Amino acid sequence: MRQNNLTSSKDSDLKLDIDSIVISEAEIQERIKELGKRISFDYQGKNPLFIGVLKGVLFFLADLLRCVTIPLEVDFLAVSSYSAEARNKGVVRLVKDLDIPIDGRHVVFVEDVVDTGLTLNYILQNLKMRQPASIKVCTLFDKRKHRLITLPLEYVGFELPDRFVVGYGLDFREKYRNLPFIGLLKSSVLTRETSPE
Ligand code: IMP
User: Fold this and answer.
1) pTM (whole model) above 0.85
2) Which of 17, 105, 143, 194 has the fewest CB atoms lying closer than 10 Å?
């Protein structure tokens, strides 16, 4: 794990909250190029439909699709949790459904990170009922340690350690998504953010 030797003159720079970088911007972009190449090869002549769940996947999906060289379409879902209990079971509410019908389509479901796998499993079940020709998962980050459901992940960018990380779409309380790398937050930030006002 590298130390954060990023410097900034501005106190408000997000990078100052980062303790260390786990995966650099260059490593992420290099891996995405490889994934894009594989997907372009696997889906030749299939006009795949890429589906992402807002908001975490935004950065990965945008970079991935620019590395895919075949014709494709893209659509989004947005979900929200009913309650903590429902969330623990992976049950989510669709707050934005797809605009494009998926029956008979070859779907590439794109995720930022798969952790327990509960949310992904729930969404995949929903999508499979709509009878796509095929559906495969592409996740940039895989956190296997907490996996509760075995799910086939066709394309995986990186395995992540069993730590809470931020950046490249992943947030802590809606912040840090716009960092171009994956990093660990300083413990002082976590304490500051979780202690009462
Ligand atoms: P799960 O696979 O159902 O447990 O849920 C995965 C979701 O948990 C992801 O889409 C992220 O929103 C969130 N998540 C998991 N690990 C992290 C992390 O290290 N940082 C930020 N969000 C995370």
Assistant:
1) yes
2) 194
